[in-house]
Write a structure and sequence with these properties.
It is built from eleven helices and 17 strands. It has 402 residues and is of the alpha/beta class.
Length: 402
C-alpha cells in the first residue's frame, strides 16, 4: 500500500549561510555526526573507521561525474544551456563515450522555448583552438515534457568523452548559486570514481581520503562497489504536497556477481556510502524477486516495495539474481531503478549509512527519516545547533539504522 505522506512534514529552516558553497581544504577534515541508539554525537570524518563495526562490508558508488553542462548560442545571440542526462543513441554509456561524429542524448534544455529549428553552435567567446577544431553543433530532435532529445555532431574524430572534457563543465548543484570553478573539477568527484555517467556526484564519498580508506580496511572492514549513475532528478524538489504524486526518474546501475555473492554470504553489517548506494542495494531484493517469479531481472518501479507483501528472504532473492547471471554467463547485473524510500519502507540490506545533510522537503530527507525510524528532526537539530555545514560540500554523518 502506497503510504500517504505530506512533504510539508519534512521541512526545516536551513539558513543560506549553513549551505557549504565550497569544499574544505582537506576532504577528511569535515565534521561527522554519529547517530547510534537514538543519540547524535560529534566527531571528525577522519575518525569514521573507529566508529564502524568490524567484519562489516562497506559499499561505495564508483560512478564518475561527467562535464555534462554545455553552453550553446543561437544565430540570434540567445544563449541555450544543454544538460546531458542519459544516452539515447547509442544508449550504453561505454559505447556512447567512445562514439565519434554524432550521438543523441536526453537532455534538460534551458531556454528551450527560444530554440526553434536552427542548429546551435557551442558558445566559445575566447575562440579556443581545440574547441574550434571540434566544431560541436546541436540540433533539437524532439521535446518530451521537461526533457528533450538533442543530436550532437562534431569534427576531428574525437570520442564524445573527449568532446565533453573539452567543451563541457561540471554540473555542480544549482543551490550553490555560482559557476563551476577550477576547484570543482577535482573536489566534486570521489577519489575512487571509475565509470563515467553521473550528472551529480554521490557526495557522501567526497569525504574519503586514501588514509581513511586504508584505516577502514585495516580494521577488517571489507569494501565493495556498485555503480549507479546519478541523474538530474536528484536536484528536483518534491512539488506536490502528497509524496505519492511525485515522480522519480530512472537511474541505471551495475552490480557485479562478486558483490552479490559477498552480500549473500555476509554475516556482519552492510555499510552504504551514500543514498545512491542504499537505493541500489535495496533495489536488489526486488530484482531478485523478479528473477525468482519471472526468470529475468527488470527495473524496480517507484512504489513496488509498498504494493504487496514479499515472503522471500534476502538470501533467496540474491540467489535468484546469482542463478540468473550464472545461467546466462554474465558477470554483472545491469538494470535500473526508480525506487523511492520513504517512512514505512522495510530495509533488507543496509544497516549503516554514511551520508551528508540533505535539503528540506526532499526525497533524500524522506530516506533518512525511513532509515532512522522517523528521528530525522533530532539529528538535524543537533547538526544545526553544532554548526555543521549542509548539502553537497557540507559535513557528513554516519547513521545506524533503527
Amino acid at each position: 500500500m502506497i503510504p500517504e505522506i505530506h512533504i510539508e512534514d519534512y521541512n526545516y529552516d536551513l539558513p543560506d549561510e549553513r549551505i557549504a558553497k565550497y569544499p574544505l581544504s582537506r576532504r577528511d577534515e569535515s565534521k561527522l555526526l554519529c547517530y547510534s541508539d537514538g543519540i547524535p554525537q560529534e566527531y571528525r570524518f577522519r575518525d569514521i573507521a573507529s566508529l564502524l563495526p568490524e567484519d562489516s562490508l562497506m559499499v561505495f558508488n564508483d560512478t564518475k561525474v561527467v562535464p555534462a553542462r554545455l553552453h550553446f548560442q543561437r544565430p540570434t545571440g540567445a544563449h541555450i544551456e544543454i544538460f546531458c542526462l542519459e544516452p539515447v543513441l547509442p544508449n550504453e554509456y561505454v559505447t556512447m563515450f567512445a562514439t565519434t561524429g554524432k550521438c543523441r542524448w536526453k537532455c534538460m534544455v534551458g531556454n528551450v522555448k527560444r530554440w526553434k529549428n536552427d542548429t546551435l553552435a557551442l558558445f566559445d567567446p575566447d575562440g579556443t583552438p581545440e574547441i574550434t577544431s571540434m566544431n560541436l553543433r546541436a540540433d533539437l530532435v524532439e521535446r518530451d515534457g521537461e526533457t528533450s532529445i538533442v543530436e550532437f555532431t562534431w569534427s576531428d574524430g574525437a570520442p564524445f568523452s573527449k568532446v565533453l572534457e573539452v567543451c563541457g563543465s561540471v554540473p555542480i548543484p544549482p543551490y550553490l548559486n555560482r559557476e563551476t570553478e577550477a576547484v570543482d573539477l577535482e573536489r566534486y568527484q570521489t577519489l575512487y570514481a571509475r565509470f563515467r555517467g553521473s550528472v551529480a556526484a554521490p557526495t557522501a564519498g567526497l569525504h574519503f581520503t586514501q588514509e581513511v580508506l586504508e584505516e577502514v580496511r585495516a580494521k577488517g572492514i571489507d569494501t565493495g562497489t556498485v555503480c549507479l549513475h546519478v541523474g538530474a532528478g536528484t536536484f528536483l524538489p518534491v512539488k506536490s504536497s502528497l509524496v505519492s504524486e511525485h515522480t522519480m526518474h530512472r537511474e541505471p546501475f551495475v552490480v557485479t556477481l562478486d558483490l552479490l555473492e559477498c552480500l549473500k554470504a555476509r554475516s556482519g553489517k552492510v555499510i552504504a556510502v551514500g543514498t545512491t548506494s542504499v537505493r541500489t542495494l535495496e533495489s536488489l531484493y526486488y530484482i531478485g524477486v523478479k528473477c525468482i517469479e519471472s526468470g529475468t531481472p527488470s527495473d524496480v518501479g517507484q512504489w513496488e516495495p509498498y504494493e504487496r507483501d514479499y515472503g522471500y528472504t534476502l538470501e533467496e532473492s540474491l540467489d535468484g539474481i546469482i542463478r540468473y547471471l550464472k545461467d546466462n554467463g554474465l558477470s554483472e547485473l545491469k538494470v535500473g531503478t526508480r525506487i523511492i524510500i520513504v517512512p514505512g519502507f522495510r530495509f533488507r540490506v543496509v544497516d549503516v549509512l554514511v551520508t551528508n545533510f540533505h535539503q528540506p522537503q526532499s526525497t533524500l530527507l524522506l530516506l533518512i527519516s525511513a532509515f532512522v525510524g522517523g528521528d530525522w528532526k533530532n539529528i538535524y537539530d543537533f547538526a544545526l545547533g553544532h554548526d555543521f555545514r549542509f548539502l553537497s560540500y557540507g559535513d557528513s554523518s554516519v547513521l545506524f539504522r533503527k
